[in-house]
Design a protein that fits this description.
- The complex is a heterodimer of chains A (647) and B (244).
- Chain A is mainly alpha-helical and 647 residues long.
- Chain A contains 27 helices and six strands.
- Chain A has two domains: 297 residues, ABC transporter involved in vitamin B12 uptake, BtuC (Orthogonal Bundle), CATH 1.10.3470; 243 residues, no CATH class.
- The N and C termini of chain A lie far apart (82 Å).
- Chain B has one domain: 3-Layer(aba) Sandwich (Rossmann fold), CATH 3.40.50.300.
- Chain B is built from ten helices and ten strands.
- In chain B, the strands form two sheets. A six-stranded mixed beta sheet of chain B has the order 6-7-8-3-9-10, sandwiched between helices. Chain B has a four-stranded antiparallel beta sheet with strand order 2-1-4-5, covered by helices on one side.
- The chains are: A mainly alpha (647), B alpha/beta (244).
Chain lengths: 647, 244
């Protein structure tokens, strides 16, 4: 019987399906309760998972019996819920959906950094709380816990459905979601409803964290990244229907499990060295998400908030050449004079600034928040590596081809943006990033093996200017300032070009598209072309940063272009100013592993994760206080009187 | 001397530091229906919003049953018995008629049957979503839902917007009767002046955020020219109209 293993594997998938559905419920609840696309739902589940693990295994010195550990974990989940409400949801009430989403990204980064600092990166085996027995179905063993998880999450789903349909709280939430101002006129308290919803969401995520332990180890990335399939499920439910989200989540989990079975079959495509093709599940989720977006995203209910704000203004650059002539020589001198650790930090900062410029173009100018940029950088990086390994082609041709390829992939990723907008686009690009990472980069044929994929040092006419070039800094150590200067030149050229883009006709058209697509179209802007050109430019810049990153590392792995890193990049650019070139450069300087991070490590002995811990708070603070970003504020405010004099 | 439900003194309010309403005084007594007229942009809607708390006044005081409202949120004001039917009806398209009757803050109970007795046409539509009701039915729902809250002060913003006048003729008498029976003060903004002066006791005419006319309905019914004059600007010279 051919079908029986498929059925058995589908049943095994009930477990992960339940977790996906559970996180999906959290996404739906956050959206209905506060209009927040909660990308940190999985992170909340992970926090509870770690809390339970720590309490149950005595990590903090006291070992609690299981019952107590569960109770305390639930209390902890509620506390986290309160923090989430007052730290993320409440401060961003009335902000545009994109800002709310970015704030949850900030929470994501902070919470993850906290867990890595507290528990380390390795996975923690957890004593399961569900029955660990197995049953035999059609000759295959299926763990009982799968059925438990599916059943418990189903019960939670039905509870939510009932509450929203019949309870006064549910009616109030639905009313407030439709129009907050009207709801207050009926004596409802939107703040109270929002808090109640967040607590409910947090409780549900706490439950998912507890359940997750029974089928997987607790680590800092599995549950957080389960947000991607969960978003796919929630999108099928139009971020509104608990039932559809549950069903879609279960089906995705089961399909993933069946794909695992398929990958053990002889007909399954392999990656060339005999292993089944990796990343097929992530690719499937991406495809599912595209389908969901196509059919269901249009039905996502808008939210009637009292105030609605847009992206921060993108001021015209003033005298960029003059600024460049001041800063570039200084930076060039520092590149030679600084000790090696700082030099490495500075190089990382320059490269990060290039990739942040890509976000400035696509988000700051065209208004499309895209998480896929770092994956595009990876496409270029791996192209450079493989052109050398497979064909022996080095600089500059491999780099050029890499950037072109990234541009093509970026252009393709831009096509959905012609139909999909705003928040839905973020979700889609997140899924694309995860799919590219897992399907592309972890695939040893066109991605990297575990040990890394070699990247040759860049050289022209036999003259090596890579990090290992023979010309060393003042301290006589690598990386070579030559490579730093190369990065500096590239960054300067691109930064000046982006400044120019903002002043050009195309830049004006991008801002018009950002402000209002229909109005732009009505005044003769070709919205489709402007968007596609924007995606292509941003992808090319991202490609350049990917090439530089590859040269800088000398050997790259899938982790070099990790989706979690991509998320923290967005957090950094939001803090410093997503709409301006100074924002990108300052973002690079404070970026993880950059100059500031190294300085803090060197002077205070604090690891980069401490910086990440702060990033989340900074993102939310800057969204509320200085939505235009710190650098943009400093750079453009202080000079305003001068411009008024000249004009 | 009857008891005052609402007294507004020297109210200034607006949006983004630009005042739409300037130093406005008005008063609504128990059981009284007061109409607020005026051309577009006169500040009628802003006045209602300031009273229910959606707009923050920049100057002046609003007293409700003798209490100063300035420190109270819209939610608290609503719970204290101020009902506001805003422009756009203030109902929720995703909720059914019956769900509107169950909606409310903790401790609030409303009697759905009472609502259906005000507007029997709503009764057969209980399980229909508000978004699928006709404009007139939506407005009935909005008024009925706010009447069953048993408010002491009812603010009605352009009931007639988008409705046939014949429907407004059905709505206004219900409001009038409720005010008489329950001693509720009603402040209504209306474009259909003729319909409104039939039910109102007193009328204010606003222009550029200020009261330009305050008169009893009785007087306006007998001498419509006063009203026309106030709309067109009081310093109307004879012959000007002919020139236009």
């Amino acid at each position: 019987m051919v079908l029986s293993p498929i059925v058995a594997f589908a049943l095994i998938g009930l477990g992960s399906g339940g977790l996906i559905a559970g996180i999906g419920l959290g996404v739906v609840l956050s959206y209905r309760g506060g209009g927040v696309i909660n990308l940190s739902a999985g992170v909340l589940a992970m926090l509870s998972g770690f809390c339970y693990w720590a309490l149950d295994t005595g990590y903090f010195g006291i070992t609690f019996p299981t019952g107590w550990a569960i109770t305390l974990t639930i209390v902890f989940a509620l506390v986290v819920g309160v923090v989430f409400e007052f730290g993320v949801v409440r401060p961003l009430r009335g902000q545009p959906p994109l800002a709310k989403l970015t704030a949850t990204l900030g929470f994501f980064v902070s919470a993850q950094a906290a867990v890595v600092l507290g528990f380390g990166e390795e996975a923690r085996p957890q004593p399961p709380i569900l029955p660990s027995g197995i049953v035999s179905i059609l000759g295959y063993t299926v763990p009982v816990s799968s059925f438990w998880i599916a059943g418990i999450v189903l019960a939670v789903t039905l509870l939510f459905v009932g509450a929203f349909r019949w309870s006064r709280f549910g009616l109030g939430t639905r009313a407030a979601a439709e129009n907050e101002a009207y709801a207050t006129l009926y004596g409802l308290s939107p703040n109270g409803l929002s808090l109640a919803n967040t607590l409910l969401m947090s409780l549900a995520m706490g439950l998912v964290g507890l359940l997750g332990a029974s089928i997987a180890e607790v680590d800092s990335s599995t549950l957080p990244l389960m947000i991607v399939p969960a978003l796919a499920a929630a999108t099928f439910g139009s971020l509104n229907s608990f039932t559809v989200t549950y069903i879609a989540g279960m089906l995705i989990g089961m399909a993933e499990s069946v794909l695992i079975f398929f990958s053990s079959q002889s007909w399954f495509p392999t990656n060339g060295i005999g292993n089944p093709l990796p990343g097929v599940q992530e690719l499937m989720i991406f495809v599912v998400l595209v389908v969901a977006m196509f059919f269901r995203a249009g039905k996502i209910p808008g939210r009637g908030d009292i105030v609605e704000r847009r992206l921060p203004p993108a001021p015209r650059p003033r005298a960029p050449l003059k600024a460049a002539m001041k800063w570039v020589p200084l930076c060039a001198f520092l590149m030679w004079a600084l000790p090696f650790g700082f030099r490495e930090g500075l190089i990382t900062s320059l490269i990060a600034a290039v990739s942040l410029l890509s976000l400035v173009v696509i988000t700051g100018f065209v208004g499309q928040l895209s998480i896929v940029q770092l994956a595009l950088a990876g496409v270029a990086g791996f192209t450079v590596s493989h052109f050398f390994i497979n064909f022996g082609i080095g600089f500059p041709w491999a780099a050029i081809i890499g950037v072109l390829l990234a541009t093509v992939v970026g252009l393709i990723s831009g096509f959905p943006a012609l139909r999909v907008r705003g928040v839905s686009l973020v979700v889609l690009t997140l899924a694309a990033a995860v799919a590219i990472e897992n399907f592309g980069f972890t695939n040893s044929t066109w991605g990297a093996s575990v040990t890394g994929s070699l990247v040759p040092a860049p050289s022209l006419f036999g003259f090596n200017f890579g990090p290992n070039a023979s010309f060393h800094g003042i301290d006589g150590a690598e990386p070579s300032p030559l490579f730093g200067w190369f990065c500096l030149v590239v960054l300067t050229v691109i930064a000046l070009w982006v400044c120019n883009l903002r002043r050009s006709r195309l830049g004006q058209e991008m801002l018009a598209v950002r402000a209002n697509e229909r109005a732009a179209a009505a005044s003769g802007v070709n919205v489709r072309n402007v968007k596609l050109i924007g995606f292509a430019i941003a992808a090319a810049i991202a490609g350049v940063s990917g090439v530089l990153l590859a040269y800088s590392y000398g050997s790259i792995t899938a982790d070099s272009y990790d989706t979690l890193v991509a998320i923290s990049l967005i957090a950094f650019i939001y803090i410093c100013g997503i709409t301006t070139v100074p924002g990108a450069i300052q973002g690079g300087l404070i970026y993880t592993g950059g100059l500031l991070a190294y300085a803090i490590l060197d002077w205070f002995g604090l690891q980069g994760n401490w910086l990440n811990l702060l990033v989340g708070f900074l993102v939310i603070a800057s969204l509320v206080l200085r939505p235009e970003g710190g650098a943009t504020y400093l750079f453009y405010r202080s000079k305003r009187p001068a411009s008024e004099v000249t004009s | 001397m009857s008891e005052t439900v609402l007294s507004v003194d020297e109210l200034s309010a607006g949006y983004d530091q630009a005042d739409v309403v300037r130093r406005l005084d008005l008063r609504v007594d128990v059981g009284e229906v007061v109409a607020l007229f005026g051309p577009n942009g006169a500040g009628k809607t802003t006045t209602l919003r300031a009273i229910s708390g959606i707009v923050k006044p920049s100057h002046g005081t609003i007293r409700y049953l003798g209490k100063d409202l300035s420190r109270l949120s819209p939610t608290v004001r609503a719970r204290a018995g101020i009902a506001h039917v805003p422009e756009g009806r203030g109902i929720f398209f995703g909720l059914t008629v019956a769900e509107h009757m169950r909606l409310g803050y903790r401790g609030e109970t409303v009697d759905p049957e009472q609502a259906y007795s005000y507007f029997p046409a709503l009764a057969p539509l209980r399980d229909r979503r508000a978004g699928f009701l006709s404009g007139g039915e939506q407005q009935m729902l909005a008024v009925a839902r706010n009447l069953v809250r048993r408010p002491r002060l009812l603010l009605l913003d352009e009931l007639s917007l988008g409705l046939a006048p014949v429907l407004v003729e059905q709505l206004l008498p219900v409001v009038r009767q409720y005010a008489l029976d329950n001693g509720c003060g009603v402040l209504l903004v209306e474009q259909h002046v003729q319909l409104a002066i039939e039910v109102a006791d007193r009328c204010y005419v606003l222009s550029h955020g200020d009261v330009v006319l305050h008169e009893t309905s009785e007087r306006l019914r007998s001498d419509p020219d006063i009203l026309v004059a106030s709309y067109l600007g009081q310093r109307r010279r004879s012959g000007e109209e002919a020139a236009l």
